Amino acid sequence: MPNILIVGGSSALSLAIRAHYETLSNPPTVFTTARGATTQPNAIGGIDMEDDECGAKLVRALPKGTQFDVVYLVAGYFTTDTIETINWKECRKMVEICAFGPLKISSALATEGMLPAGAKVVFITSEGGSIGLRTEGEGGGNYGHHVSKAAANAVGKIMSWDMKERGVAVVMVHPGFMRTKMTAHYAQYYDDGGAVTADVVVGPLLRVVEELNLENTGRFIASMGLQGFNPNAIAYIKQLDAERKDEFKMGVKDLTTTQYTPVELPW
């Protein structure tokens, strides 16, 4: 029976991923984590991504001999800032939760043999971590957010080489512009940006996960394609796609057919 782990199991996206697996005719066992106490089945509470021991605590709490087919690293944290209002404590918290937290969890699972050959590790990150997509028109600010997501992408990219030696594939995924509590700061852009709910995001995300393998490991993918991006970003992504020389195989690679065709994003 396959095993799935969702780290940060209380978010809207985590709940939607879990709900999808539960609808399958032969559903896998889905484990989740929570920062606080939880009574959900197969949920492990007390896993705080700021805690240096969160990975070790998770390993100890799991049934002995558990191995995972897919690990979703969903836990995140987001606050806004400007150059005049930077809160260093909040910035460090974002980096700890979004970048080092996933590394703590993945390192512990790999060390304990819980990520066998064929397993997949999925970083839920953001296009906000792409340096290449930042523009003067977008402006500055949100230092903690951008730095934490760029750091998460760097962790995932470097980890993909370590994990490849173990037969484990890694992908960083921008799941799309979602209407969630975490993005409420951007609610004024929901309609113009085509923001969607978490249940809409799950299908494209899982298609990327399904097609993830050791040949396309270490990529940074927008699973819903160009959905939610501004015109300048769309033009740049299309330009990069046209210039790409390697054999990128993940989903149907035709940017004109559907907004939900996955595309590779620049770092």
How is the largest sheet built, in terms of strand order?
3-2-1-4-5-6-7-8
Query: Could you name the ranges where pLDDT drops below 50 across 5 or more consecutive residues?
Result: 247-258
- Number of E strands: 8
Work out the strand percent: 5-15%
Main sheet, how many strands, which sense, barrel? 8 strands, mixed
Number of alpha- plus pi-helical segments = 7
Structural class: alpha/beta
Notes on the structure:
The chain is an alpha/beta fold and 267 residues long. The chain starts with a strand and ends with a strand. The protein has 7 helices and 8 strands; from the N terminus they run E-H-E-E-H-E-H-E-H-E-H-H-E-H-E. The chain has helices at 12-22, 54-61, 88-111, 143-164, 190-193, 198-211, 231-243, and strands spanning 3-7, 29-33, 43-44, 70-73, 120-124, 169-174, 219-222, 263-264. Helix 3 runs parallel beside helix 4 (143-164).
Descriptors:
8 strands; 36% helix; 267 residues; eight-stranded mixed β-sheet; single chain; alpha/beta
Could you write a compact summary of the structure shown?
The chain is an alpha/beta fold and 267 residues long. Helix content is 36%, strand content 12%.
Write the layout of secondary structure elements.
Blueprint: E1 3-7, H1 12-22, E2 29-33, E3 43-44, H2 54-61, E4 70-73, H3 88-111, E5 120-124, H4 143-164, E6 169-174, H5 190-193, H6 198-211, E7 219-222, H7 231-243, E8 263-264
